Amino acid sequence: MEQVQFSGFTPKTFEFFMKIGFENTPRHFESLRSEFNEVVLAPLKQLSLGVSPTLAKIDGRLDLRPVMGGTLSRIRRDTRFSKNKAPYRTKMWLKFITKDPGMRLAFYFDLDPAGCVFGLGTSHSTPQEMTEKRRYFLAHARQARQMIEQYTSLGFSLGGPCYKRPPQVSSDPVLMELLARKYFFFEKPVSIETVYAPSLVDTLAEGYIQLADFYHFFNKQS
């Protein structure tokens, strides 16, 4: 079967999320399931397939299955331990990560009506694992600093919640931007014009290639 190429999302994609947000019930979702499949799920799968060859070259261990629970987030929320009992998400995302145990970095793309972004960030991290990684960054301070400056110059912002009193410190203010965070991500916004265009595949692929340097640096043994 011939693979359908990604042709861009449309305003109907975000209209779907608005509809679900207005009436977030299983009955309403089921009435819109065919719309969901057409304007959200299908193009999201096509986008995943479009960037997968690039990601496979970065790390052949990445899970690239274009299914919910693979690279695609689930639309149904797990509400068992949440005060918010709305059953469906009003956004979705792509996440490319290995199945290895412990803390890993994940490449991602957020399909969000509030603003689409993509980047690279920590996933499944514990405070103990982050402590070890901060020690690694301190031991390789020059390289870590250069990468932070490089990604800033490329339009990525370094984000993530900060400690009031970071467990590890440096006199370098640039490096402290990384050390001060409980977890972190390098993230870049995507214009709505690009989200609606086939070139979104190329935008993400180019960005992931740029972020690959930090991905491999992070995964090196200290």
Report on this model:
The protein is an alpha+beta fold and 222 residues long. Helix content is 45%, strand content 14%. A 5-stranded antiparallel sheet has the order 1-2-3-5-4. Strand 2 and strand 3 form a beta hairpin. Helix 3 crosses helix 8. The chain is globular, with a radius of gyration of 19 Å.
What is the rounded Rg? 19 Å
What share of the residues does DSSP label as strand, in percent?
Answer: 5-15%
N-to-C series of helices and strands: HHHEEEHHEHEHH
Largest sheet: 5 strands, antiparallel
Structural class: alpha+beta
Task: Count the beta strands.
Answer: 5
Helix coverage percent: 40-55%
Number of helices in the DSSP assignment: 8
Poorly predicted runs: none
Mean pLDDT: 94
With strands numbered from the N-terminus, the spatial order across the biggest sheet is 1-2-3-5-4
**End-to-end separation:** 46 Å
- Work out the oligomeric state of the chains in this entry: single chain
User: Which shape, going by the Cα principal axes?
Assistant: globular
Concise summary:
The chain has 222 residues and is α+β, with helices and mostly antiparallel strands. The protein is built from eight helices and five strands.
Task: Write the topology of this structure.
Elements: H1 11-22, H2 26-31, H3 33-58, E1 92-96, E2 104-111, E3 116-123, H4 127-139, H5 141-153, E4 157-159, H6 173-179, E5 185-190, H7 192-195, H8 200-219
Antiparallel strand pairs: 1-2, 2-3, 3-5, 4-5
